Give the backbone structure.
Amino acid sequence: MPFIPTRFIHASNLRLDHQAQGVGAVSTESQTILEDCTLDTFSHLIDACREHEIDFLLLSGNSFIADDFSIRARIALIEGFQKLAADQIQVFIVPGQHDPLSAWDLQYNWPANITFLSPQDRDVIDILREDETIATLQILGSAHRKYSQPLKLNQRNQLFNKQEERALSIGLIAANLPTDHSDTHGESTQSIPLSLSDEYLPAEWQSEESNEISVDYLALCKGTQRHTFEMHPGVAHHPGTAQGLNFGEHEQNGVTLVTVGTEAQLEQRTLRIASVRWLVLELNLQPELSRAQLIQHMQESLLSQIRGHHEKLWMVRWQFQGSGELFDSLRSFKHQSSLSNELALAVKERLQVGIEQSFYLKPEIRELRETHSTLSQLFQAQLEQFKSETQLPLKQ
């Protein structure tokens, strides 16, 4: 089969209409943005699919949270898929841990461009463009299905062998693997580590006697962080989450645009489509640092961040480590609020994005040691006093 260039977007953990966690008190405007952020991000995803003229969209788990029973999530999915259908863009949906197949209401008349897959499926699906196969898609197994066909990743895939050009083959490990919780503008290229750890595979695939399966792109679903692994020379990839929902998901958010061109090279680009960015910014406060100097450092740290095209709000957590009078004063909520307001006014005209700030204070290691030493001494003194008081009646 001659090799055919193709382009698709791989997205995961959309979690439509699921709400952010660990937010605290925010303004009414910020609260509205936070409530709608996953829906806005999905709208940006649909726009990106049309803008890049992709052949298909691959959703690999947790498109919504079934336990939320969200009507808004369902409406967003239907309207988004209808827009893609109008542009003849196919959508392949693999249910995840939080959006099982039963929650998708398969009795509903979904648009004709939608294909649902399940962990039980073992057939190879041909993805067509004008009656020509441009890629194949196959569920290779899941962590909870011991009869799944084993896969060995130490193979040399044929996609990059120009002697045998063919359609892209996509394998997918179904969801239900254990989840793992743990600032970039626009688009970026993902670096590729050298190997795929066994922790990302079902246990039965970690045997040396595993059979080899030829896949050029292995779609993973593991937690909310991005992962890319070389497969000599194909790739195994998990796009993470399109929109972070807490400070533990601040590092890399986005969806992945995968392009296979005429030169048989697989290119991955991260598209940043989130409307809310979570930032954790660290500063070291020396004892001699003044308030004016601190505000200057904070301002420089904020302004060094480049605003993403779709970003409306930055959720900023300041992590301060240090000691001194200024550091100690920031234990007060009143002083934190005053500092936050002053900084917001200073950067308002230049930042052009809403910000909500919180503070986390971490004493210096030396101070922690001294505190630990003082507590130990106090405990020892109390222990000796207790011994003395309890032994006294016996002596009498």
In short: Residues 365-395 form the longest helix (31 residues). Residues 276-363 form one domain.
